[in-house]
Amino acid sequence: MTGKTLLSVQNLTMRFGGLTAIDNLSLNVPDQAITGIIGPNGAGKTTFFNCLTGFYKPTEGAVTLNHPTKGPIRLADLPSHKVAQTAQVVRTFQNIRLFAQMTVLENLVVAQHNALQKASMFSIAGLLRLPGYRKAADEAIERALSWLKRLNLMDIVNVPAGALPYGTQRRVEIARALCVNPLLLCLDEPAAGLNPKESAELNTLLLHLVQEEGVSILLIEHDMSVVMNVSDHICVLNYGRKIAEGTPAEIRVDPNVIKAYLGEDEDDQPVEKAS
Amino acid sequence: MAQALQQLINGLTLGSVYGLIAIGYTMVYGIIGMINFAHGDVYMVSAFIAVTTFTLLAALGVSSVPLALLVVLVVAVLFTSAYGWTVERTAYRPLRNSTRLAPLISAIGMSIFLQNMVQVTQGARVKPVPPMLSDGITLFTSGSYSVRISSAQILIIVLTVVLMAGFTWLITRTAFGRQQRACEQDRLVTAFLGYNVDRIISLTFMIGAALAAVAGVMVTMYYGVVDFYIGFVAGIKAFTAAVLGGVGSLPGAMLGGLIIGLLESFWASYLSPEYKDIGTFVILIMVLMFRPSGLLGRPEVEKV
Amino acid sequence: MNKKTLLATCCVALMGMTGVAHADLAVGIAGPMTGQYASNGDQIRKGAEQAVADINAKGGVLGQKLKLEVGDDACDPKQAVSVANTMVNKKIVFMHGHWCSSSTIPASDVYNESQILMATVSTNPKVTDRGLKNIFRIMGSDDQQGKVGGDYIADHMQGKKVAVLDDKSAYGKGLADEIAKELAVKSITPVLRESITAGEKDYTGIISKLKTASVDVLAYGGYHTEVALLLRQAEQADLKLTVISGDTMTNSELVTAAGPAANNVMFTFAPDPRKNADSAAVVKEFRDAGVEPEGYVLYAYAAMQLFADAANKAGSVKYTDLRKAMASNTFNTVVGPLSFDDKGNLKSPGFVMYKWQDGKYDSVQ
Amino acid sequence: MTAIVHAHHTPTLSERLKDASAAAFIALILGIPMIGMTTVDQGGFLAVMTRWPQLALFVGLTFAGRILFSLALETIKRRSQGRKSGKSAASAAEAANAALKRGTKPESVIGWLAVGIAVALPIFFSEDRYIIDIATSVLIYIMLGWGLNVVVGLAGLLDLGYVAFYAVGAYTYALLSTQFGWGFWEALPVAGGLAALFGVLLGWPTLRLRGDYLAIVTLGFGEIIRLLLVNWTELSGGPNGITSIPRPSVFGYAFLPPDTEGSIADLLGIEFSPMHRLLFLYYLILLLALLTNLFVTAMRRLPLGRAWEAVREDEIACKAMGINVTTVKLSAFAIGAMLGGFAGVFFAARQGFISPESFTFSESAIILAIVVLGGMGSQLGVVLAALVLVMLPELGRDFAEYRMLLFGFAMIVIMVWRPGGILANRAPTLIHVPTGDKA
Asked: Where does the UniProt annotation place the signal sequence (chain A) (predicted)?
């Protein structure tokens, strides 16, 4: 942890018609640390990610990334691909979005599209097979392989991603996100579908990324063994509002959090009927 | 002025027909989220059924036009519903959980199939039926121009209004209507509640086909000339109407139909009869670009 | 490997199909055998089949039997070109066709290239105006037809308001332009000159325009389906129209589609060959076979007669010989004597005004 | 991993008969108004003609077909159940490695074989105009299929108006050559560029639309172009088209009869034959098609080509990876359009005549069918589908009427049977071969 703030969220609000998915959320995400976002289903966690990464335009509020070289970047003003390309904020998805028919290696090379496309001079250098492009292409493959090696995925390099089991797909998706060269990595339930051994490996990987690679991580997770073990800082959401924030130890004993998770007053919630 | 009024009447007639076909598109889109590309051809099939039935009745010596029309309507609605059912059962149901493009391509295949089936079995020539209900009422005369509404036009407009009323009742007041709307909201939950979703979808296709059949009979009677190609053009225009009104919205489909009908009528008489179809297509593209949810539709949120 | 066998099979099959030696003399006809104008194609086929049968019964041409090849272009220029290519491949020595001007024009390029002689009934002036040497027209052309139509309007419909409409096809636009030209000569100004798109069903827009202009007479260049639709929709709008059009109105489907309103249709067509004394025997032959030799039936018959005569006179079926014979002789056929000018146009064409009356058409004065 | 085996119920004979009877009953209902009856013109009025024997045949065939179909389905299900095993990383990797070992070898062998046959074809049939004509048509469709494959197969954008770009190419050449005397080779790049421009013009505003909406918009665009060609008589000649379009020449020498200026027959001192031009056209389209194939294959292995496929697979994931989806789609659209434009130029030059009738929606549907039936994204699949679809009607003359009918039927059946097309297996663009034991 550097003690600096990488991402600051101010008064973020997201409404869909009458429904307020995120309600006046303010949050500081520290640099080179792991920040956990937890909360019951429907708390607005994924919506928060969508606002962050340009998939939704927030109704109100601002999200600012303090880029070490490019200075502050207002994420809400950027289209989603610019969020990844310029601000280097890269995400994974709760329901895994791999390029199913493409092989694992292809998935990881596609993630390096922008650099490669520039090297291929919009395909002209590529069609002519100029040495500059070939060097860039080889480097991209090397980079992909090195991440695959790190994640212990070398034996499935040439397998179409869609043919892999769920847990493996999760890890491939993380490897692919890493190929985009992220400053902030937003992981949406990376441990879902992993077995305990894989889960433990994920913990090691996340810690390694922060400590060795200098990546900051924003983590949505239901698996408390992951969140509580790796997070430096945790933010708890319920009904779109932040109900608690602090270290794992603080969160564990927070009465609001316990109430939200045990769902005292949730029995009275009317089940929304189809209208 | 008189000409404008006349074109208003002509446009309303045309728009009623488009509206009736558009409902089939909108309902199907609402319930299974696909464009039933073959719907226009189902309408075309109904027109051919109408021609055969008209001819048969004439040969049997039925000379009362109202009786003949009634019989033709019933026959066309019944047979065309069967076509609607079969189209869904064979080409779309097996692909219900497939990618988005697969059922669309299958639908295009079905459209080509129906068009060519009719061409092979009924011939490629135009089929005429003798004129009927071509008398009418002269509303008023200004100068040498008399504004006139023919009996056929009155029938088309009145029948459309009645059908729309009945249909609105069906969707808002009956058990089937509730199930149908539930299905549109969430198919899975509807199935969990113990309703037969397959049956609801099949019925939706049959109702859509039945309304298209009414349109087919009306057009056969009104224009008197039918060929295997009418489904494509009418289908595209009705689809444009559905999109314009907001896909999934029933009043929207009707409204869209009327707007397209009026647009075409006025375009043909004031601008250029040659480019009226281009007008329709330009509207289609404009609407999809600037207001993809249509006039009465609800905007859709992209699910990430 | 599978594909290779497939391909090989295809090749063998194709070789078998095309490798058949033609002991007979192949002659072709082409026209709309399917599609909207199929009944006209049918007339051509019936006429040509009868003619070939008759010629063969008399021993054929130069000792060889004729073999008829039928091509279907559905009046679609694109199909016409591919029919022409197929015909060339079948090594025909003479072609009667095509029917639609818009088919004949592109197809004639193909025949010309392969040096095949044509006799057509397509009336558009462009058919013979392009300097092709292989084409002969056994009917008048639209400029002649349009003149007759225009004159009729000028002479018999004085003071009526006239609109000129066409369907943009080579034939339709050509005819409408010629009528308009003749009207201008007679200093009649049409109140409306418009085009419509063939194949549509709703013409209420143009009807409304006609009504606003209080049009009485509609000079129309195009085909019968649109005329039927226009008449029906005019009737519903309470607009009384008299339609003046061309030879395409001989189609009886006009009556089926337009109903009693068809009685308002007048059109120009060549003098009815059924009334020729020379054709009596052939007409009887057709009627005995249950075919009414209306429309283009006798023209197709005449085209085959023309070919047989020319080949006999030339003593050969080689293109150059045949062409020379055709250009320099007069031939007696069931549609009367035929002889051609330098362009291949009929030297003495005639057009007469006809009128539909209760399902039949007859000439008017 | 445990394989889950579903308890499978085998229908009894009576159930099968009942099912087939139901199908036959529906066939009867559907058949009565279409097969059982038709109307014929009796010279001024219509009369109903019945065809009950045909209807009976149709119902009987449906009954028998349904039984055979259910039996066949049974066998396939039983067989595939044996093969179905648990999905694990190890088994997936095994399968992939096995596929790699089989490799793309057979496909490339077939590909080269096809090229060989195509090159040698005119040697065997140099005097047969018919074969050369058909082969040229097949090659045009192959080229169009390969062009559309970029848009539909690779980028996953359903384009129902592809024929518009084909038309743009054809009319551009026709107008440039007949009005301004341009030659084939000068007009080719201009027409391709113009078609690409049209692709961008259409794509720019519409490519953010969802798949099926995009399909409809492209269909509308295709119709607008066709209607413009039909109605803008001054430019396009209207429904009559443009005639006497010059044929392509070789370095300024045309295939003209002897003693004409610039006749290639005179130049080479050989006897003139119209077949020479046909052979030249055949090799020209073969060359264009092969270049198209090389280009598309090369593109697929480049970043842009991979991005096309990634966009097809998952647009949202692409955005999250920083890929500008709009640009990627637009490039696919423009390149597809350009290839269509090239094919159009050749078409116009070969026919010598074009009219809007050549550019109707059904032409779009045929090209789409070639791509879809062959297997979206598969280059060889396109060849196969084009061969079958163009040759079918030629093999049996009486068959022609049923061609489009079978077309539609095949589209439905193949979609239901294999939503990915016949040759649906995708060849990877990158293969990592480990050096040493464990790299």
From this structure: none
A179, A194, A223 - which closes a domain: A179
CB burial class (10 A; 0-12, 13-18, 19+) of residue D178? middle
Could you tell me how many CB contacts below 8 A there are between chain A and chain B?
13
The partner residue sitting opposite D404, judged by closest CB among B45, B108, B112, is B112
Using one digit for the tens of pLDDT, what is the confidence trace for B239-264? 889 988 888 888 899 999 999 999 99
Is C203 in the same domain as C315? no
Q: Supply the pLDDT for residue A1.
A: 61
CA separation for the pair B285, C330 (Å, rounded): 61
Condensed to tens digits (0 to 9), the pLDDT of residues B17-37 reads 999 999 999 888 888 888 898
A97·D430 Cβ contact <8 A: no
CATH number, residue C65: 3.40.50.2300
pTM of the entire predicted model: 0.85
Provide, as residue numbers in chain C, all residues whose Cβ is less than 8 Å from the Cβ of D233: 168, 173, 195
Whether C208 is covered by a domain: the verdict is: yes
On whether the CB atoms of residues A38 and A260 are closer than 8 A, the answer is no
Q: What is chain D's alpha carbon radius of gyration, rounded to the nearest angstrom?
A: 26
All residue ranges of chain C with pLDDT < 50 are 1-22
Nearest to C4 by CA among D379, D383, D375, D367: D383
Residue C360: inside a domain: no
B238 within a domain of the structure (yes/no): no
Q: Cβ contact (<8 Å) for A46 and B189?
A: no
**Chain B residues with CB inside 8 Å of D224's CB?**
278, 281-282
Domain that holds residue C232: 143-269
Residue in B83, B114, B304 nearest the CB of D316? B304
Residue of D170 and A68 predicted with greater confidence: D170
- CA-nearest of B52, B217, B235 to B127 is B52
The mean per-residue pLDDT over the stretch B95-121 comes to 86
C67 is written with which tokens? Answer: 């073999």
Q: Is B69 left (phi over 0), alpha (psi -120 to 50) or beta?
A: alpha
- Average the pLDDT over each of D30-39, D92-101, D110-119 and give the range with the smallest value: D92-101
For residue B2, is it within any domain? no
A275 belongs to a structural domain: no
Question: Any idea what the CATH number is for the domain that residue A5 is in?
Answer: 3.40.50.300
Pick the closest to residue B125 from B42, B71, B51 (CA basis).
B51
Q: Are residues C112 and C147 in the same domain?
A: no
Domain membership of residue A140 as a residue range: 98-179
Tell me: do A11 and A82 sit in the same domain: yes
Subunits touching C (CB < 8 Å, at least 3 pairs)?
B, D
Residue type, D308: W
Residue A101 in contact with partner chain D when CB distance is under 8 A: yes
Residues 6+ away with beta carbon under 8 Å from C120:
C96, C97, C98, C99, C104, C108, C127, C135, C136, C137, C138
Number of domains comprising chain B: 1
C-beta atoms of B224 and C228 within 8 A: yes
CA of residue A163 relative to chain centroid, distance:
23
User: Shortest Cα distance from C224 to chain D (angstroms)?
Assistant: 13
In a domain, C363, yes or no: no
If one counts the domains in chain A, the total is 2
Q: What is the pLDDT of residues A178-191, one digit of tens each?
A: 999 899 999 999 98
Select from C74, C203, C225 the Cβ nearest to the Cβ of B126. Answer: C225
Strand partners, C346: C340
Catalytic positions of A, written as ranges:
189
ipTM, two decimals, is 0.83
**D319·A100 Cβ contact <8 A:** no
B134 within a domain of the structure (yes/no):
yes
- E strands, B192-289, are 225-226
- Nearest-angstrom CA–CA distance, D37 and D48: 7
Sequence letter at residue C303: A
Nearest CA in chain B to C34: B124
